[in-house]
Design goal:
The structure holds 2 protein chains of 2 kinds. By secondary structure, chain A is an all-alpha fold. Chain A contains 15 helices and no strands. Chain A has 2 domains: 2-150, no CATH class; 170-356, no CATH class. Chain B is globular. The chains are: A mainly alpha, B alpha/beta.
Chain lengths: 357, 211
C-alpha cells in the first residue's frame, strides 16, 4: 500500500516541482557555500526572530505539499484512494506520517543540520523549537490530508464563474490560477523578485547592463516548467486542439500571446524599477528578449516527453553557457534575435514531427 | 473518401496498429473490436491527434501531413470519454472550436438545441455529468463543414432521446450534405437505424472488412 501511495502522491510531487527544486538547490548550494549555511544557522540558533523566519518558510513549503496531496485526492483517476479511508486510523496515520516524512525531506534534512549545530552550540531552546516545529508540520499535514480523505468533494470557496466567453489565450492562465495557484504565485513572485532585486542592485555599484541580462536569464529560468504544465493541461483537457485547422504560424502566435500574458507582469516590473541610467527602450528590449526565450523554451519542450531531471540539467548548463556569453559581452539585440528566431525555427521543425513520424 | 496507406502507429517502439491499405468510400462506416483493440488509436490517428508513419488522404486531395489545415478543416472527431477544463463553459469551447472550424452563422445554436446543450450553455463543464460532456463533445465534432466525422463510442452515456435526435441528424447530414461518418460502438448499431456503408473489425493491430 505504501508503494502505491508513494507512486501516486509523493513521486508526482517531486516530478511536478523538479524545476523549483532545481533552482532552489542551485541557489542554496551553488551560490551559497557550506560555510555560509553554517553562519546562517549559527545566527538563527541565536535569534528567535530568525528561527521564526525559518519556520515560516517551512510552513509555506508544507502548505504546498498539503495542497498538492489534497488536490491529488480530488482528481477522478485517484478515486480509488477513497478506499484508503477503510484502513484503521492508526495504520492510516502511520502511512500518512511516512508519506509526509518523504515529502518534507528537504525541511527535515535542513532541520537535522540545524539540530546538529544546536547540539554543538548547546543551544537547547532552539533545538527544542526546531524539533517541535518539524513535528507540528508533520502532524498538521497528516491531519489536514486525512480530514480531506474523510470529507471528499467539499463545497470549497471557488473563484466565481466568468460571465463572458473566455478566449483560448486565457484558457491556460485561468487553469493555472484556479488549479495550481501556488505554482503561479511562486513562479511570478520569484521571477519578479529577481528582476526587482537586480534593478535595485544595479545603481549601487559600477555595474553595467550585463547584470540586467543575468537577472533576465534567472527570471526566464523560473518559467522553465511552464511549458510542461501547459502541455500537460492541453494533453489532458484539450485533446481536440490537434484536430483544429490551425496553421503552424497561427498556433505559434496563440502560444506567443499566452506567454506574453504570463510574462506581462515582468514588463511592468522592469519599467517601474528600471535604473534611471538605463534607457526605456533597453528595458522594453530586455522584456521582449525574455519573451522570446520563454517561447524558445516552449518550442523546445512542447510535446516532447523529456525527463524533468534531464530538462533541469539542460536548463542548468544552458544557464552556465548563457552566463559565459553574457560575460563575454553578447549584446541584448543578439540575445533577442537568437531567442525569437530559434523559437520560431524549432517550432516549425517540431510541428511536422508532431504529425508525421 | 478516405485513403490510408502504409500506416503504422507505435507506442514506445511497440507497433499497435498496422494498416497497409484501406479505402473507405463515402458513407457511414462502423468499426468494431474489443477493448484495447486499437479503435480509438486509429480514430485519433485519422483525426490528426497522434503522430504516425504513413499517409492518410481525404477525397484524394487532402493529405494529413502535407495539407494539415485543409485536412483538419474537413475531418472532425468526438472522443469516447471527453474531458474539458472544468472552468470553461460549453459557450467558451463552442466559440473557440467554431471559430477555428469556420462554423456557419447559427450552426452552434442549432446544434445546441438538437443535442440539448443549450440548457447548460453557460454552466462550467466541471458541473457536467458524463452525458452532458458527451453531448458537448458531439456538438464540437459537428461544427464547421466537415466531410468526415469520427464518432468514438457516441452512444456511451447518451440518453435515449438525444441518441435518437443524433442519429436523425447524422442521417440528414449524410443525405443532404454528403458528410461521411466513422463510428465505433459496443452497443448494437443496428438499433440506430443507420444504413451502414461498411463494417470493419479492428483487432490484433490490423483492420479487416466484416462480411
Amino acid at each position: 500500500m505504501l508503494t502505491v501511495l508513494y507512486r501516486v502522491l509523493v513521486l508526482p510531487f517531486y516530478i511536478r516541482n523538479a524545476g523549483t527544486f532545481g533552482l532552489v538547490f542551485y541557489f542554496a548550494f551553488g551560490f551559497m557555500r557550506p560555510m555560509d549555511h553554517e553562519a546562517l544557522i549559527a545566527s538563527a540558533l541565536g535569534s528567535f526572530f530568525l528561527l521564526i523566519l525559518f519556520a515560516l518558510a517551512w510552513v509555506l513549503y508544507t502548505a504546498r505539499t498539503v495542497s498538492f496531496i489534497r488536490g491529488q485526492l480530488a482528481i477522478p483517476e485517484h478515486l480509488f484512494l477513497q478506499t484508503f479511508r477503510l484502513v484503521p486510523i492508526r495504520r492510516r496515520c502511520f502511512y500518512w506520517f511516512v508519506l509526509f516524512t518523504q515529502l518534507l525531506l528537504p525541511i527535515i534534512g535542513y532541520a537535522a543540520w540545524m539540530l546538529a549545530r544546536a547540539v554543538h552550540y548547546q543551544s537547547w531552546a532552539s533545538l527544542l523549537f526546531i524539533i517541535l516545529a518539524v513535528l507540528c508540520l508533520l502532524i498538521g499535514s497528516v491531519l489536514a490530508v486525512d480530514y480531506r480523505l474523510l470529507r471528499p468533494a467539499p463545497d470549497t470557496v471557488r473563484l466565481p464563474s466568468l460571465r463572458f466567453r473566455l478566449p483560448y489565450e486565457l484558457f491556460f492562465p485561468t487553469y493555472w490560477l484556479r488549479h495550481e495557484p501556488l505554482s503561479l504565485v511562486f513562479t511570478k513572485l520569484i521571477s519578479c523578485g529577481i528582476l526587482v532585486g537586480i534593478c535595485r542592485l544595479y545603481p549601487t555599484d559600477d555595474y553595467d547592463q550585463r547584470l540586467l541580462l543575468i537577472g533576465l536569464m534567472l527570471a526566464i529560468i523560473t518559467h522553465s516548467q511552464v511549458g510542461r504544465q501547459l502541455h500537460q493541461f492541453e494533453q489532458r483537457y484539450l485533446l481536440l486542439l490537434a484536430n483544429l485547422p490551425l496553421s503552424v504560424a497561427r498556433r505559434f502566435g496563440q502560444y506567443a500571446l499566452i506567454y506574453g500574458l504570463i510574462w506581462f507582469p515582468e514588463l511592468l516590473i522592469v519599467l517601474h524599477n528600471g535604473p534611471i541610467s538605463v534607457p526605456v527602450y533597453y528595458l522594453i528590449g530586455l522584456w521582449l528578449t525574455g519573451w522570446g526565450w520563454i517561447m524558445l523554451l516552449h518550442s523546445l519542450g512542447y510535446s516532447r516527453s523529456i525527463n524533468p531531471d534531464r530538462w533541469q540539467i539542460a536548463i542548468f548548463w544552458g544557464f552556465i553557457g548563457g552566463l559565459l556569453a553574457i560575460m563575454f559581452g553578447w549584446p541584448l539585440l543578439a540575445w533577442g534575435v537568437v531567442g525569437w528566431l530559434v523559437a520560431v525555427g524549432y517550432w516549425y521543425r517540431s510541428s511536422r514531427r508532431r504529425v508525421q513520424l | 473518401m478516405l485513403t490510408v496507406a502504409n500506416l503504422t502507429k507505435a507506442y514506445s517502439g511497440r507497433t499497435v496498429l498496422t494498416v497497409p491499405a484501406l479505402l473507405l468510400s463515402p458513407g457511414i462506416h462502423y468499426f468494431q473490436g474489443g477493448n484495447g483493440s486499437g479503435k480509438t488509436t486509429f480514430f485519433r490517428t485519422v483525426a490528426g491527434l497522434l503522430p504516425f508513419a504513413g499517409q492518410i488522404t481525404l477525397d484524394d486531395r487532402y493529405e494529413i501531413s502535407r495539407d494539415p489545415v485543409a485536412y483538419r478543416m474537413r475531418v472532425n472527431y468526438a472522443e469516447a470519454e471527453p474531458l474539458y477544463p472544468d472552468f470553461l463553459t460549453a459557450r467558451d469551447l463552442a466559440g473557440f472550436v467554431g471559430r477555428a472550424k469556420l462554423a456557419p452563422a447559427g450552426q452552434v445554436d442549432t446544434l445546441a438545441e438538437i443535442l440539448g446543450v443549450s440548457t447548460f450553455w453557460t454552466q462550467p463543464t466541471g458541473t457536467f455529468s458524463s452525458g452532458m460532456l458527451k453531448k458537448l463533445s458531439l456538438l464540437l465534432a459537428l461544427l464547421g463543414k466537415p466531410r468526415l466525422v469520427l464518432l468514438d463510442e457516441p452512444l456511451t452515456t447518451l440518453d435515449v432521446a438525444t441518441a435518437a435526435r443524433l442519429f436523425d441528424l447524422i442521417r440528414k447530414l449524410r443525405d443532404e450534405q454528403e458528410v461521411s461518418f466513422m463510428l465505433t460502438s459496443h452497443q448494437d448499431v443496428s438499433l440506430t437505424g443507420l444504413t451502414l456503408t461498411g463494417s470493419w473489425q479492428v483487432g490484433d493491430g490490423i483492420i479487416t472488412p466484416l462480411p
